[in-house]
Amino acid sequence: MTEKPQHVLIVSRAGHPDAPGLAEEIRLWLEGRGVRARTAENNGSDGADPLPVEGCDLILVLGGDGTMISVARQVEGRVPMLGLNLGRLGFLTELTSDDWRGFLKSVLAQCCRYSERLMLHYEVQRAGVVVHEGLAINDVVLNRGNLARLIRLGLEQDGEPLGSMRADGLVVATPTGSTAYSISSGGPIVHPELDVYSVTPICPFLHNFKPMVLPGNLKFTVRVEEPHSEVFLTVDGQDCIPLNHSDVVQIVRAEAHLKLLEPERSAYVSRLRAKGVIE
């Protein structure tokens, strides 16, 4: 059971032709039911034009999963979120442009629940100095460059060495991200509310490293042992950071959780089937 929202921020995908008109329509609908609402456009997570989230108790995102992830990384778990899908697959976006009225009526009637999801915090250390850090909603991926050449990565779990691995790369995914790049790499489907994360190699040499599911309280460390090939760190498919030989990437559970608004009886398996993840 959730409380009735009093102030909703409606964030639309930048450049989408239908988003501004739909955002205004929803704003007027909410205002007509005694809920304060305002609109904003998502311009990315570079901090140049931050979203006005202060005072809001719900953020409604109009766009696809990419927009939802971009907004979630800016919000950092401070405000519950709800997505309306204007994209393609829509794993994170609960609503469509046809059914939003009925769902929002349930929200105002307090007939919904919050789904709290683990997020990851990562940092890149270079010669002992943190040169980059941030938040991941879906996954942190270490991968090779343009050349079809394996890279070598050293792996540790809470300081315990797991050995070296040669592969095209490695996916460290949240439960939410387990149905994204991770599953395409052979990773497991993980229920989104579990306090765990998965580690899945991408095309490992001789298949000498199998996918793992680790408790959320453990720190995972990757050291770039590849001296010759390009190695990149990709976050949620949105940020790309070049890595150097001997760089260390540390990944831990973020302090905050992603909080998504869902129906009280959200059918997770039915959603997987509807998206084609399972038959």
Describe this structure in a few short sentences:
With 279 residues, the chain is α+β, with helices and mostly antiparallel strands. It contains 5 helices and 16 strands.
Describe, in plain words, how this protein is organized in 3D.
This protein is an alpha+beta fold and 279 residues long. It has helices at 19-31, 65-75, 100-108, 181-184, 268-274, and strands at residues 7-13, 36-42, 58-63, 81-85, 112-126, 129-136, 139-144, 151-157, 160-167, 169-173, 196-202, 212-215, 220-224, 231-235, 239-243, 248-263. It folds into 2 domains: 7-110, Probable inorganic polyphosphate/atp-NAD kinase, domain 1 (Rossmann fold, 3-Layer(aba) Sandwich); 119-255, Tumour Suppressor Smad4 (Sandwich). The strands form 3 sheets. Strands 6-5-16-13-8-9 form a 6-stranded antiparallel beta sheet. A 6-stranded antiparallel beta sheet has the order 12-11-10-7-14-15, with no helix packed on it. Strand 3, helix 2 (65-75) and strand 4 form a beta-alpha-beta unit. The protein is elongated, with a radius of gyration of 20 Å. The two termini are 31 Å apart. The relative contact order is 0.16. The model has no long low-confidence stretch (mean pLDDT 92).
Query: Radius of gyration over alpha carbons?
Result: 20 Å
- What is the 3D shape? elongated
For the record, the CATH class of the largest domain is Mainly Beta
CATH-level-2 architecture of the largest domain: Sandwich
Spatial separation of the terminal alpha carbons: 31 Å
How many structural domains in the coordinates?
Answer: 2
DSSP strand (E) fraction?
35-45%
The number of strands is 16
User: Fraction of residues in helices?
Assistant: 10-25%
Strand order of the largest sheet: 6-5-16-13-8-9
CATH superfamily of the largest domain: Probable inorganic polyphosphate/atp-NAD kinase, domain 2
N-to-C SSE string, H for helix and E for strand = EHEEHEHEEEEEEHEEEEEEH
